[in-house]
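Pipeline run #58 for the internal structure catalog. This entry was flagged by the ingest filter as a single-chain record with no existing model, so it goes straight to prediction. Upstream metadata was stripped on purpose; only the residue string is passed forward. Reviewer on rotation: M.T. Logging verbosity set to normal.
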Amino acid sequence: MAILQAISLGLKSWSEIKHFAEGVAGDIPDNRFNSLLQNLVKCGFIERTENGEYGPIENLLPKAIKILHSKYRT
């Protein structure tokens, strides 16, 4: 949640987001932090731009519905 909170506050770089998240959650090893960021990207909650900055997905709800639909398709 701290990563999403950092991004919602407009922090964009890896180091800014990590610094904020560590202020909230305590020390986070770099490899664990990278894994958390990549999971958020993979799940479609955030995106990584061409210049390496992170930000929220603009149309999150349609993407979330699509993911849920594919996961729970009957």
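catalog note: Helices lie at 2-8, 14-25, 30-42, 60-71.
catalog note: The longest strand covers residues 46-48.
status: ready for reviewer M.T.
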